[in-house]
Amino acid sequence: MTTVITIAVGFPLGYFFLRQQLMLALMAARLDQAARIDHLTSLANRKTFFEEAEAIVGSEAFREGAVLFIDADHFKSINDTFGHAIGDAVLQEMGSVIRNSIRERDLAARIGGEEFAVFLVEAGRDKTLEVAERIRQNMRGVRRAVGIEDREITVSIGICVHGPGQTLSDILLRADQNLYVAKNRGRDCIVATTGFGPVFA
Known about the structure:
By secondary structure, this protein is α+β, with helices and mostly antiparallel strands. It has seven helices and five strands; from the N terminus they run H-H-E-H-H-E-E-H-H-E-H-E. It has helices spanning 13-34, 46-58, 75-82, 84-101, 125-138, 142-146, 168-184, and strands spanning 65-72, 107-112, 115-121, 155-161, 190-194. It has a five-stranded mixed beta sheet, sandwiched between helices. Strand 4, helix 7 and strand 5 form a beta-alpha-beta unit. Helix 3 packs across helix 4 (84-101). The chain starts with 12 loop residues before the first helix and ends in a 7-residue tail after the last strand. The relative contact order is 0.14.
């Protein structure tokens, strides 16, 4: 004979154990999600970006793609002039611009301070430049969104389109080098290469 244990309100004790397990599982899922995103912009965080980019490049299905490093120009002066609240609002709007400029299957992240990264999946040279220019142009609307129309907000973008024989480390390094070149060119511009080849933009 089986006995079902109940508590005062009449529910079987097993119900409460099950409910507790479901709540713990939900909490664990939320914590895992929270650990993978940047809380200011709701984009992926640095750790997630590099893990997922590694998985993409390591996949047998991977054929082509590109990494974009995007950095806000003169961001420190925005923080110094308008305060950190406005600075945070600028970063949030930048995140929205990037998210709205790429496809759902692409990967976007804030990887530190005012620097963002995008991994475009199955994107060659022309598609990558199209997306990068869209991001660069749309950033000009950020100042209106945060209410500082007297201050121009621009970005510099370094790109590496995946080439034969390149590892993820190679792609990331070249994109970072190209971002540095873009900064030295006067900012508000795009510098791009394919693989180990010469600059084409």
